[in-house]
Amino acid sequence: MGVKSRMGGPAGGQRAVCRVVLFFLFRALNALSVRDSRVAAEIAPWPEDRVLGLEIPGGPALYMARRGKRLARLKAGAAPDILIRFKSVRDAFYVFTGQMGVAAAYAQHRFTVRGNVSATMSFVRCVDLAEGYLFPPFWAKYILKQLPEKQLGSLRLYAAVLLGR
Questions:
Q1: What residues contact residue 105 under an 8 Å CB cut-off, 6+ apart?
Q2: pTM here?
Q3: Of 55, 64, 70, 71, residue with least CA distance to 19
Q4: Coil, strand, or helix at residue 1?
Q5: Are 84 and 55 in contact (CB under 8 A)?
Q6: CB 33: neighbour CB atoms within 10 A?
Q7: Which tens digit of pLDDT belongs to each residue from 105-158?
Q8: Mutual orientation of helices 154-163 and 117-134 as an angle, nearest 10°?
Q9: N or C end of the chain: smaller count of CB under 10 Å?
């Protein structure tokens, strides 16, 4: 029995957490795009006009595109070429809080993908790398198939994320 109000109850709290996670996820991906060679290699071939979107029904969304070596956050309502759309706020909340990995969420049909599947997998690999930095190892090992080797310390990434660099 979910709560549908925009502010109160479990759905409102989950929506707020998802909004915060999307903010930090974008900043982490942007910082890693110039600090981690694997993320840089993944995004380098993306066309600059390709828009990637993450959407949560009745909740926040993230739209981004590559601009040079970095990522740019686009305004809400951008028409995505690749769209990952969660089926509910709760489904996104499970993934965004590390209670479930992207692979498990996909296997359980908790989100849909529209667009080029190969390009989507490139984006998911970047998200997996970001999760490897953002989540502590004891937590990340339950949601990632393999813990990625870090090319910079998590504290340096946290500083870059907080400072928006």
A1: 91, 94, 95, 111
A2: 0.85
A3: 55
A4: coil
A5: yes
A6: 20
A7: 989 999 999 999 888 999 989 988 998 888 888 887 777 778 889 999 888 999
A8: 110
A9: N
Among 23, 24, 6, CA closest to 15 = 6
Looking up tokens 């870059």 gives: 160
pLDDT for res 3:
43
Residue in this structure with the two tokens 């996104």, named with its chain if needed: 92
H or E element in which residue 83 lies = strand 82-86
Largest CA distance in the chain: 45
Helix boundaries (H) for the chain = 9-35, 37-43, 89-96, 102-107, 117-134, 137-143, 154-163
Minimal CA–CA distance to 43: which of 19, 67, 18? 67
